[in-house]
Amino acid sequence: MSKTTSGNPMDLLDRYLQAVGFWLPGAQQQDIIAELSEDLHSQIEEKETELGRSLNETEIEDILKRRGRPLLVANRYLPQRSLIGPVLFPIYWFVLKLVAGFYLLPWILVWIGMMSFSPSYRAEHTSAGWFGAIASAWSAWWFIALAALGTVTIVFAVLQQFQIKSRFLEDWNPHKLPPARNPNQIPRSGSVIEVVANLMFGIWWIDMMSTRVLLDRPEIRIVVAPVWRYFFWGFLLLAVINAVAAGVNLARPYWTVPRASVRLATGCIASALFCWMSRASLVAEITGAHIPAARAHEITNALNLWMDRVFPMVLAAGVVIALVDIRRTLRVKKAAPVQLKGAVSVAVI
Amino acid sequence: MCVTYYMTNGTAKEAEVFENLKLELRRGCLTLAVLTQLRTERYGYTLRKALADDGLEIDEGTLYPLLRRLESQGLLVSQWREEDKRNKRFYLLSPVGVQTLEQLLSEWQRINTSLSKILQEA
Hints:
A: 349 residues, B: alpha+beta
C-alpha cells in the first residue's frame, strides 16, 4: 500500500531525494542531493514548459520512476565494494565446494547410514519420533554448515583485505605451477605399487587366511564362521584381478572404458564384501588357555557387535569408492580416443 | 512449445550479450564525449542535452557519477553558481583534463584508424 502524500506533487520529489540521501555517505550526501534535485527540477520545468501547465502527481511519479529506485541511484555514486573480490572469488568458490563435498555431504550420508543400519544409534535419536530426529539432525547440520561456510567466508574476507594492500596474488612464478596432467593417464608408480601390494596381499592371504582358524596359538585361538570361505575366495579373486589390471595399466598407462569398468566392478564387489563381512557375525569362536569360557563368549559377541556397528562407515566408504569409479568411467567414456605422443591411436584395452 | 521456449530464451540471451557488449563499447566513448563537451563550461542537465542533440543519449544515473569520478581524478573542476534563480553545478575541463583529453583523442584516432583498416580487410 502506498504512503499518502500531502497533496503537493513536489512532496514526492522531496521524499525521493530523502530516500536517495539515506544511502549516500555523509560527506557527499548534501552535494549529490543538491545536484540531483537541480537536475530533476530542470527536467520537471522542461516538461511543464512543453505542456504549458504544472505537472500533476502522476507525471512527477513517472519522472521519478524513470530515474530509478533510490537505492540503485545512490549505489551508482558509491565506490564498488565487495567482501570477496573477483581475484579471490574463484578460490573461495573452490574451497566452498570442497567443504560441501568433503564435509557437509558426508555428514548427511553418515547420519543416514547410522540411522538406517545402527539400531542403537537409531534408538538413541528417535526417542522423540522420526520427525523429531530429522528436525534435530537438520538443525545440527545447518549450524555446522553455517559455521563452516561462515568461517571460510571470514578467512577469505580477511585475505581480500590483505590482497588489496599487499597484492600478494600478483607475485607468482610460472615454474611453480603444477605439471600439466591428463586425468586419463595412470601414473606408472601407482601401478607398480598396486601390482606389488596385491601380490603381497594375495600371498599373505593364502598363507594366513585360507582356513577358518585365523589364529592358532596356545594363548588364543580364533575361529571364524563357515561363511568365511566366500570372503576368502572373493578377496583373493579381487586381488588377482587387481594385480592383473594394474599390470596392464603399467604397460598401457591410460584409462580405457573396459579397464575403468573393471575397476568400477572390483570396487563395487569389494565394497559389497566388506559390507557383508561387517554384518555376518564373522567371529564364531574365541578360546584361550587363560580365558574363561564366559569371557571368551563375551569377547566374541563384542567383536561381532563392533563389526556390525562400523557397517554405516563401511557402506559410506563403499559408496564414495563407487562414485569415484563411476565418475572415472563416465569421464573416460566422454573423452575422445587417447592419443599417445606421435599421434598414434591407442587400442581400446 | 519446447522450440518456442528455446527460441525465446535464446533470443533473450543473445540480446543480453549484445547489450553487455554495447555497454562496454560505449563506456570509454562516453568518457571521451563528456570530456570533449566540457571544453565549454556546462552543468549536468545542459551537458546531457548537448550529448543527446549530438546523438549520444546518456542517462542521468550514468552521467552524474561519471562527472564526480572525473572530478575526483582531477580531470574536471566544478563550481556551484546561481543561474535562472537556481543553484547549479558547472563543470569544466581542468588543465590536467585538457592534457589528458588530447592524449585520449590521439589514442582514439589511432584505434579508429586501425579499426577502419581491419574492417576494410575483413
